[in-house]
Write a structure and sequence with these properties.
219 residues; Rossmann fold; 10 strands; globular
């Protein structure tokens, strides 16, 4: 599908965004609009610029040209509530922190919740991701798939306006892929989702926009 014009539901707009690194053009003339309740699926070859596009959307990178704008009710804003699952985790496995604490860290920027509500949110997410039995497990003792689920829990626990997922099914076995897809089906009722995946068939029934990055362009 093609992106559309900014409206009252728009959260993010990328307008003619290009990005070059060390004189190499990675992305060129990308246009994308993400609205409330959108589920955007992006695929493409490895090294094609998918992760770069997400980092631009998150404003972790600055476009070489073009603009990345955030909106609420058609008004430009400086930030949104965003949950992010990166492709490769950045947690030090030797850091002395347990599963429950990692998920709770996703609420640090959420000031409006009292202690009981925070704990309820954490417990609900652990149940959804089948992590309750691992709540007090140090992260250094987790498998790759378990840690991926923990980091997904951290990304969703705040119920952000926008959830950005970079290859969320990495390391996850088929049983838990099904659980995560069910969770995303629920999440998309209140959160816009932008997902990069090399397994688009798993989420195409939920998608409102689908794209392939080819030769640095979003098609």
């Amino acid at each position: 599908m093609q992106s559309h014009i900014v409206n009252n539901n728009t959260l993010v707009s990328l307008s003619r965004v290009s990005f070059a690194y060390d004189r190499n053009l990675i992305l060129q003339d990308v246009n994308l609009v993400v609205d409330n309740h959108d589920f955007v699926v992006i695929t493409g070859t490895n090294g094609g610029g998918k992760t770069t596009l997400l980092r631009l959307l998150l404003r972790l990178l600055t476009p070489t040209s073009g603009a990345v704008e955030y909106y609420q009710r058609c008004e430009s804003v400086t930030h949104l509530s965003i949950g992010y699952l990166p492709q490769k985790n950045s947690i030090d496995n030797h850091f002395p922190i347990v599963v429950e604490e990692v998920i709770r860290s996703g609420l640090y920027a959420t000031k409006s919740l009292d202690r009981n509500e925070r704990q309820l949110r954490v417990q609900m997410v652990m149940e959804q991701l089948h992590l309750t039995a691992l709540a007090q497990r140090p992260i250094g003792e987790l498998s790759g798939g378990q840690l991926q689920r923990v980091l997904l829990g951290r990304a969703v626990v705040s119920r952000p306006q926008l959830l950005v997922l970079d290859e969320p099914f990495s390391y996850i076995d088929d049983t838990f892929v099904t659980h995560i897809c069910e969770m995303l089906q629920q999440i998309k009722s209140h959160t816009a989702v932008v997902m990069v995946t090399h397994q688009p068939a798993l989420v195409l029934p939920m998608a409102t926009q689908t794209y392939v990055i080819e030769e640095g362009r979003l098609r």
